[in-house]
Amino acid sequence: MRVGTTDPQVKRKRPSTATGIIDGVLFSVGLLLMVVTFSNPARSEKTPLIKRVEVMGSGAIYKQDIASARSRAIANSLATAVDLVAIELIPLETLISEFKGVNDILHNHTSEFIQDYKVLTEYLSEKIYKVMVQATVSVNKVEAALTTAGVETGNKELPKILFLIAEQNLE
């Protein structure tokens, strides 16, 4: 007998319907276990997430004290950098309803969220000192502080769900 030809006397045995259903269910369960095993969200939490932002700040000059005005301008720009990162994390409705609490959290702990900064340029006018700062903000720390305070952040990872439908010919 040659390969590829059909012999009318050789009958192929079709698997029973129950066996086909069990095989389909086992395959589906195995595939689902693989997806759950390899989509471990804990891996992404181990790496710290940072964001680098460029912002401008200003400080008023009082009694010819330029150094204090520069410090206020830098502090103002760092607070703005933290604000920008927080605005990306918090849904608008939550930000509006929790505005006072969010401001208290962010502005009382600004230095904890800033990893480093660099003054890119500065400008001195008659009564205002202006700076442009590049700040590196720890997104993880901002999010953790907000979550600890009970503020909802929009960075929640949705569960991964896989639907498998085994289609079988039940003729």
How is this structure best described in words?
The protein is an alpha+beta fold. It starts with 16 loop residues before the first helix and ends in a 23-residue tail after the last helix. The longest helix is centred in the middle third of the chain and has 24 residues, at 66-89. Mean pLDDT is 76; it is low at 42-46. The protein is built from seven helices and three strands; from the N terminus they run H-H-E-H-H-H-H-E-E-H. The chain has helices spanning 17-38, 42-46, 66-89, 92-97, 99-108, 110-113, 139-148, and strands at 50-60, 114-124, 128-138.
* Strands in their spatial order, largest beta sheet: 1-3-2
- The run of helices and strands is HHEHHHHEEH
Strand portion, in percent? 15-25%
Global structural class: alpha+beta
What is the makeup of the main sheet?
A: 3 strands, antiparallel
Relevant terms:
three-stranded antiparallel β-sheet; alpha+beta; 171 residues; 7 helices
Write the layout of secondary structure elements.
Elements: H1 17-38, H2 42-46, E1 50-60, H3 66-89, H4 92-97, H5 99-108, H6 110-113, E2 114-124, E3 128-138, H7 139-148
Antiparallel strand pairs: 1-3, 2-3
Tell me briefly what this model is:
By secondary structure, this protein is α+β, with helices and mostly antiparallel strands. The protein has helices at 17-38, 42-46, 66-89, 92-97, 99-108, 110-113, 139-148; strands spanning 50-60, 114-124, 128-138.
